[in-house]
Structure formats: structure tokens, C-alpha cells
Amino acid sequence: MHSGVVASRSADNSGKTPNGVDAVSLAIIEQLQEDGRRPYAAIGKAVGLSEAAVRQRVQKLLDQGVMQIVAVTDPLTVGFRRQAMLGINVEGDLEPVADALTAMDEVEYVVLTAGSFDLLAEVVCEDDDHLLDVISKRIRTLPGVRSTESFVYLKLKKQTYQWGSR
Asked: Which of 98, 103, 90, 102 is nearest to 144 (CA)?
């Protein structure tokens, strides 16, 4: 298991993101993306702040929803032997279907898309029977779902959240 920090950034000309994240906070995010358990004192040395100042900034970034600190696992090693990405086409409003998907424990990732599918959802299940149940009895029966296409993962080659603050 390794830990990761997920952050989003779209900077303007002032060097700040829409959430007001400055270069120092972005450097803190990068430090945490390298090691989500890195001590605040070590981060402070790397970015030129005190441990207390780093602690305050991290808390502010968490409170604003700019990032989250999580443990990232390989699903296979913790008993989830089947993963799939589902492409979903919807009739009508996408939001109710997206909301229903986000409420499902097995669904780890939901995005509204442009292209061949209206929604993409990553599903993590214990086995093929579990995946079949989720798709057939829970997702395909949602009001508005017109069709699904499943992309079953055969092997996880890369899963990282270390893109920094590009």
C-alpha cells in the first residue's frame, strides 16, 4: 500500500488557482504526492515554512476540497479481484444517474464525458459474479440508463497520483 494526495489545479496569470492556491501550497501538495506520510517538519524545510505553517496550509487545502490524503491500494492485494471501467449512455438528465452511481460502494470513479459515452464509472468488485450483479441488477436498472459497455481490467499496470502541480 502507498499513500497519495489528489489535487486539482488550473492556474491563472497571478500564479494562483481558482481556490487561491499559491506556489508554496502547490509545493506542499507535491511533497505530499511523493509521500502522503511525510512529516510536516520535513515539508516545511523543503518549502521554506515552519511546521505549524505547513500544518495550517494542509488543513486549509483539505477543508477547501483542493486535495485529500488517502491510502492507495492495489485492489487485488486486498481481495478485490475484478475491476472494470463502464461506459454508460443515458437518456435525459445525466445527473440523477451520476448521483446514483456515486452512491454505490463498488463505484470508485464517476465522470460525465463528451464522446461515445455519457458517463464513465470505475467499478471494483470481489469477483466476476459480484461485477455481473452490480452491472445487471443495479446499474442497468437505473432509470435513464440506455446502455452500458464494460471494459474489464485484466492487469493493473500503473496507478499513480503523483502528477505534481503541473
From this structure: 90
pLDDT at 76: 75
Residue 89's alpha-carbon distances to 84, 86, 131, in angstroms, are 16, 10, 18
> Is the C-alpha dihedral spanning 65, 71, 77, 78 positive or negative?
negative
The percent helix, strand, coil of the chain (3-state, each to 5) is 35, 25, 40
pLDDT in tens, 131-149: 999 999 999 999 999 999 9
DSSP H/E element including 25: helix 23-34
Dump strand ranges (E) for 50-130.
67-72, 82-90, 107-112, 119-125
pLDDT higher at 2 or 64: 64
> What is the mean predicted confidence (pLDDT) over 127-133?
96
Residue 88, all three cell numbers: 454508460
State the Cα–Cα distance between residues 23 and 28, nearest whole angstrom. Answer: 9
Among candidates 149, 97, 105, 146, which has minimal Cα distance to 124?
A: 105
The helix/strand count (H/E) of the chain reads as 5, 6
